[in-house]
Structures are given as C-alpha cells and as structure tokens.
Please model this.
Amino acid sequence: MIPKQLPPAFIMVVGAFLLPLLKGRWQKAFLLLLPVASFLNLISLPEGQSFVFDFLGYQVVLARVDRLSLVFGYIFHIISFIAFLYAIHVDNPLEHMAALVYGGCAIGAVFSGDLLSFFLFWEMLTVSSIFLIWSRETPSALAAGYRYLLVHAAGGLCLLAGILMHISESGSMNLGYLGLHNTATFLIFIGIGVNCAWPILHPWLTDSYPEATITGTIFLSAFTTKTAVYALARTFPGESSLIWIGAAMTAFPIFYAVIENDLRRVLSYSLINQVGFMVCGIGIGTQLAINGAVSHAFNDILFKALLFMSIGAVMYRTGKVNATDLGGLYKTMPLTCIFCMVGAASISAFPLFSGFVSKSMVMEAAARGDMRLVWFMLLFASAGVFHHAGIKIPFFAFFSHDSGIRTKEAPLNMLLAMGIASALCIFIGSYPAPLYSILPYEANYVPYTPYHVLAQTQLLFYSSLAFTLLILSGIYPAEIRAINLDFDWFYRKGGRLLLTFSGKVLNGVNELSERVIVGKIVRGIARFTADGVARVVLIPMVSFWALRGQKGPRLEMKKRNLYNAIMKGGLPVGLGIGFATVLIILLFFLRQG
Amino acid sequence: MKEERTEEKQYLFDKPENVKRLFRFYYASLVVLLIIEFFIHKHATFPWEEWPGFYAVFGFVACVALVLAAKYILRPLVKREENYYDS
Model:
C-alpha cells in the first residue's frame, strides 16, 4: 500500500540528505521550504491516521496522529522555520543537515506509535544534535560535546534496557500509558528523565548548550527537553513523584542563574526551571494540569528560543556573552533589545504575554489539588524566573553599566526570526483561544480574570522592586568571571579522578606483572627449557650411580659427560633406553607407594 | 524607537531626567497596584491569598531571599576559577 501522505518526520529527515546537492541561494531557500512543506503534510494528516509496517513479526507504528502528538508537531515545525530563518546566513551545510535531522527526529519521536521507532528517533536526537555543539569548533565545545554524548548514551541505554524488558514482559510495543510499576518502567522513567534534565541528571544541559553554536542553541533549546516532556505526558501522566521532581526543577536552577555570568548559561538554567513547570503539571495529571504542561511547552519553545536568539544576536555582533563584558547595547541594538524584552516578559508570564496563559494553568491545577507546598514552590519559582530571566538577561546585556561597545543592529534574517517569535508570544498571550483549541483536553480555563491579572502583576512588580533595591544598594551579587560547580563536577572531576586512580592502580598492577611474570616466571621457564631435560635426567642417574658406590671426582665426571651428551643431543641409544627403563621402574614404584 | 540621536550620540538613558521619569512612573505603578487590590473581587483558592498585598509581599521577600541565598550560601560553595576544569 502506498500511503497518500508521508509520515511527519519524512520530509525533514530525507530533505536533510538532499541539502548538500544544492548550493548557495537554492540551498538556503530549500532549507526554509522544508519545514513549510513538512508542516503542510502534517496538517493534511487526519487525526487517527497511522503508518504501520510489519517488521520481524512486530507491528512497527512509525507514526500515529493524535491530539497530544499534534501540539508538539505544530510547535516543532514553527520553531524549525524560525530557527532556520535565524540561521540562514550560516554557511555550514553540515550544521544545517544536523539541525534538519534533529528537528525531523524530534517530530518523528512525538508521532511514534511504538517503543522501538520512538527509541530510534530518540537516539537520533542525540546523534544529530551533537553536531550543533561541535560545529562551534572550540576546544571547550568539543569537550562539552563529548560529555553531552556520554551522558545521553548512558540515558539512552537505560531507556533501551527498560524498553526491551517491558516488551519481553508485556509482549506489547505500544507507546502509551506505562505507569511506574516495575524495573522496566523505572528504567524507561530514568531514561526519559536524563533528556528531561531532572535535578542531578541535568548538568549536561547547562554544560553543553552555552557551548553550542549561536544558531545551534536555538534548535537545542527547543527539541530535546520538550520531546522528553512529551514522552512523560504520554507514558507517565499522573505519576506523583513527577510533581516533586518538577517542583525541584523549578526552584533550584534560579539560585544558579542569579550568580551565573555567561548569559546563555543563565538561559539554560531558566530552561530547566521552565521544564520544571511542565514536569510538575504532568505529575499532577488532571486534564487542566496536562493542558497546562503541554501549552507551556508550546509557549516555552517560542520564548526560550526568542531569548536565546536575542542573546545570540548580541554574541554574533559583539563576540561576547558574559554579563561582565556587556551592557548599554540598547543604544546600538534597539530592536534586538525590544525582542529580548518580549521574550523576558513572556517567560516571566506578564499579562498579555504567552507565559501568562499557560503557566497559570499548572499553578491553578496545583491549587485545586490543594498541594500547598508545591504551590508555594511554583510561586517562588515564578518570582525567581522573572528575577533572573526577565530582568537579569535584558538588564545586563542591554542596560546596566555602558560597556562602551558600539555595534550594528542584528542582521535582517535574525531580526525577522526574532520578530516572528515575538509576534507569536504576544499573539498567544493576548488571544490564547487558538492555542487552547489544539490542547489534548478540552480547555475551558479562563486566564484573564481581574484578580489573576492583578495578583501576577503585583508578584512581578514587587519582584522587580527587590531587584531594583538590591542593585541600588549594591547588595546584588556582582557578576564575577568565575564558574560555578554543578553536579557535572562528579563526572568532570570524578572522571579525572578515575583516570588518576586507574593510572596509579592499573599501572602498579602492570609493573608488578612485569616484575613477577616477565622477570621471574618467564625467565624461570626459559632457564628450565634450556637445560631442564638434562637436569631431570641427572636426578635418577646420579642416584643410580650413587647406589653403585661411585663417588667423588669420578661421579662428577660422569655427571658432566651425561649433561654434555644430553645438551648436545649426543646421547647413545643404549643409555637413552636404560634411562627410560629406570624412569619407568621409578614411576612404577612411585605408583605403588 | 527608544533612542534619541543627537550630535554627541545622547541615548535615552544617558539623560538623568529620563531615568528619573522612568523611576517615578515605576514607583507610582507599584502604589497603584496595591490600591486597586481593594476594588477587585478575589476568587482565591487558599486563605492567604485573601491577605491584602499577599502577592506583592511574597514577590519581594522571595526575591530578596533568593538573591541573598545565592550570594551568601551558594556562591561561596560553588564558585571556582574560570579555568578550574582545565587545570
């Protein structure tokens, strides 16, 4: 059967391999066309459509279209287009190919209907995204890329082990609700958690995203973590441990974000913080909470990309990304500054900006479930995210002390990409109905009540008051050129420790072996094989001669003659037979004994 | 656009009076936010949401606590030289 439509991942992934066949303008046009064509294919797929193949007796559901998958499918296409527009000036076909495969596989993963194809797309996410980090071509990017690869390989193996165990236990490859109930599902849970950047498992993200290329980070910020959010919403909705994991994710990164100097790393921490809201919503598991988590993923992809794009534009023009080196750029990059502030307002959930209409759903779901501590943690994180992403990012890059840098406004393609993202953030924030209409469950949530608007505005304004007063009083921690340790210490320093340890221990073992085996045992064997036979022969013969009463120099001479005869192979036949006979007799008596 | 270009490239916030104007507007809106709370119907879920100025106080206290904790607890624990991992 030839399907009338193509599986959602098909156009981007296959397009990636056609890209190098084109050159110059055609290549760039093709790059922008692919997400559009793929999107048109996607909207032509009716809900419930699936693409099924028989593979080794298993039904492989390469794609299955339902509402949850569609939300992620839509936003992945939108952000692909925006990010390619932003990256269109880059003349590195390999990087574009990697981004296409990466986006295509993210789309493939959210539409997979079975665990096997899901796993394949999931692993391809890691493999393709690594090139977006390595394309930066700095030693630190190379090293961060290797660490990224190792962490994801470990997470992927964990997931694979869980999937294989699950298939053999349940006999089903279906990708649907799993629930946390045995070792297999626990392994899957952890495998997804690595990509989701759960606390302790998270440092791959803050380690590698700030090291990627300016344009690569936009793709990275969108796909890996959101695919993991999708996977959790698909397989573990309502798993109560996710509430606490999510709440922890919202809270701890903001402390780091306050003291971090690299602005892209600040954004990486706030990325974890925002994913925390989604994970928490999935853990709560009510229809409102799942809707909140999914719509927040949708919005976060847009405003986080917008923030990364604006800081990326600053980096592109100035070559700097540390808060200590920047400041006063509103003077020369006014449009980028405005786009950054739109992103900042959206992530902070200002009324009329996109974060407001989605984050509040998760908060409301926590409140309706009477989860008081969780609610307070989320509220704290809401104030904190405004503090570090909403104020710190625009303030230190574009205002603060004047760094004296006078540069040009961002290139047109970057401005257009940021403009589209900004427009979407404001549109969704002001008119959320279209977003609500594509959510997995019916959304009758009303974000804009006077009280809710007032409460949120108060929260944000008084958070900013805290920032203002702390800055004016000089208490606000000065940005310092330094790095802050995180859990990656355990494998970055731990790895080195392991190397030193194994160097000491294994090299010690090596030296000991050299001394004992090579120096003693081998030499012993060599010496034995040199004249061992002669010596063995001498033992019975000397005893025999001694019995016959021979002594002194005559015995010595006989011994020497026999030894020389054996070593030279000049043993008379008779003597050999005699010796053999003696040996046989000896053996006979030994056995008797 | 925000900038006002003149011969000496004077930008928006290079003029102290503009900064002063911004701050005046900012402080005024802080006060207004507290006042209009009394004219709005609250549909609170938790009892503490009924307290006047709950969100304002929470936002302020949370952020001060956040910054102080980050500065005086987290930073001394985790701050290292920039080339810490390279050495």
